[in-house]
Amino acid sequence: MQKRFKILHYISLMQPIGRRSLSQALGWTERVLRAEAEFLKQQGLIDIETIGMKLTDEGYQVLEELSPYIKKIFGLNELEQKLQAKLHISRVIVVAGDVDKDEFVKKEMGRAAAQLLRQYVKENDIVTLTGGSTLFEVANMMPENPQLQSVLFVPARGGIGENHEFLANTLVSVMAKKTGGKYRLLHVPDQLSEESYNSLMNEDNIKEVLKVIRSAGIVIHGIGDAKTMALRRNTSKEILALLEEKKAIGEAFGYYFSQDGEIVYKIKTIGLILEDLEKIPHIIAVAGGKSKADAILAVLKQNYKQILVTDEGAAREILSKI
């Protein structure tokens, strides 16, 4: 059952997908996969076409109905409860696997976060989100939902200037397009000089967008490794040395945190600040991988209202540290 569930699960994330690609993703031989795929086709759960395998409506239904039982078999429900109690946060969702070993786990975290958003969002809500590869998967996993036409999506802050597809401005437009909602953009760099920061903060358009962002009912954000994020921002050698001296571990919203959750450095950025989070009802952090356990711990010590969407690798590593 676990094997067939995994096939359905991977197809749902990557469809249409050929047998060779799927067998590589699963680490199985094509012969083993072919036999299982034929069985699932006979049961009416998948279609095998020239362009690849796809789930049928029945396949989606079986996948959804089996998910709670599979989580129980894998021990993920117990893992979620332990982590929630240890972290003292409002909710934890753990998906199977470790994104450090399997990049497709990031897609499943994206799906879980998208489902959470659908649970919490309400009519005329404002949803704000940061950028990054993990949030990219959240946006991609958003199902089309005409009921979200009144929802406004806005970026939580300016862009880092990396891959355009990972920028918050891009992701809010993707979410709005998928759901039929609306979106606003924030056209400012992620990192600013003192002079540029003060100048932009006096702009009426910037003030208006910031007011909208701070009125959000839901914020979805990623968590980064401090050193990785600093290098990605082309941070100066002096600041890199400071972050190393202060033992910065995690990063979120332009803040760098030590292992104790203390803020050791903050970049000049326009967008959400930590004080704004106190007024936002639902805060969803999405991050996974055993290597990010310390960063996740450091950031979550700042705000106990958060909901964490993570993977098994990060969850087990966090529990081993607290």
Folded structure, characterized:
With 322 residues, this protein is of the alpha/beta class. It has two domains: 1-62, Arc Repressor Mutant, subunit A (Orthogonal Bundle); 76-320, 3-Layer(aba) Sandwich (Rossmann fold), CATH 3.40.50.1360. The chain has 15 helices and 13 strands. Helix 1 (2-14) packs across helix 4 (57-74), helix 6 crosses helix 7 and helix 7 (133-140) runs parallel beside helix 8. It is globular, with a radius of gyration of 21 Å. The chain starts with a helix and ends with a helix.
**What portion of residues is helical?**
40-55%
Average pLDDT reading:
88
Secondary-structure-derived class: alpha/beta
Order of helices and strands: HHHEEHHEHEHEHEHHEEHHEEEHEHEH
Oligomer: single chain
Tell me the major beta sheet. Answer: 7 strands, parallel
Shape: globular
Q: Please identify, by name, the CATH architecture of the largest domain.
A: 3-Layer(aba) Sandwich
Poorly predicted parts: none
How many helices? The count is: 15
**CATH class division of the largest domain:** Alpha Beta
Briefly note the CATH topology name of the largest domain: Rossmann fold
Gap between N and C termini? 34 Å
User: Which percent band covers the strand fraction?
Assistant: 15-25%
What is the CA-atom radius of gyration, in angstroms?
21 Å
Order of neighbouring strands in the sheet with most strands: 3-13-12-7-4-5-6
What is the domain tally? Answer: 2
Count the strands? 13
